[in-house]
Amino acid sequence: QVRLVESGGGSVQTGDSLRVSCAASGVTLSTHNVGWFRQAPGKAREYLAYISQSGAYTNLADSVKGRFIISRDNAKRLVYLQMNNLTPEDSAVYLCAAREGRGEPQYGYDYWGRGTQVTVSS
For 27-77, what is each residue's pLDDT tens digit? Predict the structure, then answer.
């Protein structure tokens, strides 16, 4: 079966940085476009970032431009989200998703991970 698994979450303080990773089994991640999302308790899932299969194209939500960077290492079969200058408002479960298709980066994902918790204290 297809599984996406996030890792790298944890508890940090305001201003710290953290990098979360996305790995896959059952699919070849390098043939898929990948997005990052987050969801905080009581809030809707929020789109954060997108990266194309090769990594040549990336997209970031306006809310995280200048702080977050999406990248991938297809040789390692990993997609990363580097998060800098974190604030308590960034506390959420961070999820990755994958799709074959193209289109708007917020939509159309076929596979989802369960997420990794990021907690930012003041």
Answer: 999 999 999 999 999 999 999 999 999 999 999 999 999 999 999 999 999
Amino acid identity, residue 92? Answer: A
Burial of 41 (0-12, 13-18, 19+ CB in 10 A): exposed
The tokens of 38 are what?
A: 């987050």
N residues, the chain: 122
Residue 55 region by backbone torsions, left for phi larger than 0, else alpha for psi between -120 and 50, else beta: left
pLDDT digits (tens, 9 = 90+) for 86-108: 999 999 999 999 999 989 999 99
- Phi-psi label, residue 76: left if phi above 0, alpha if psi -120 to 50, beta otherwise: alpha
Rg (C-alpha) for the chain, rounded Å, is 13
